[in-house]
Design brief:
alpha+beta; 5-stranded antiparallel β-sheet; 2 helices; 32% strand; globular
Amino acid sequence: MPVHFIAHWHHDDPNDPIRIYEEVGDDRTELRKVEEFRDGTLARADSINDGPTSLTWEPMPDIVEIEDQPDFSVELISAEQFEATWTQASDPVL
């Protein structure tokens, strides 16, 4: 059963996302991801499409490890919340 969460990235760089919405499989691999930028842009990637954002092919750290990093905080969300954000995000430019 996939896990869905938002990694809030606390930083000042305008070129990096401030929120990363994740759908992670049982094996800790990213299934789908949406990156949200300061200007409200949402960019998405899955195993078929990538562009300005792409999936990480290495297993994701667990939520506790992510939260242990000083620049991140994590919020668990429902599959429905993830899907709503996914639907709003732009397909990558191929």
